[in-house]
Write a structure and sequence with these properties.
Shape: elongated
Largest sheet: 2 strands, antiparallel
Structural class: mainly beta
CATH topology: Ribosomal Protein L24e, Chain: T
Strand order of the largest sheet: 1-2
Helix content: under 10%
Strand content: over 45%
Order of helices and strands: EEEEH
Number of domains: 1
CATH class: Mainly Beta
Number of strands: 4
Length: 62
């Protein structure tokens, strides 16, 4: 599975977890992807789309 939105190309980002004592440890921020049936160039396909694109109606669901 590709960890990337097919519409906006959002993918896993990296950053730091910061504790109360200000120690920093690496972490990842994963995208909330959902598998949907959508039309891409007139073809019905299943694709991974982020919830931000689903909410903003950037896609046409089947």
């Amino acid at each position: 599975m590709s960890k990337q939105c097919i519409i906006c190309k959002r993918k896993t980002a990296t950053g730091n977890s910061v504790s109360k004592s200000n120690r920093k440890t690496p972490r990842t921020f994963k995208v909330n992807l959902q598998k949907l049936k959508i039309n891409i160039d007139g073809k019905k396909t299943r694709a991974y789309v982020c919830t931000r694109c689903i909410k903003s109606d950037k896609i046409k669901k089947i």
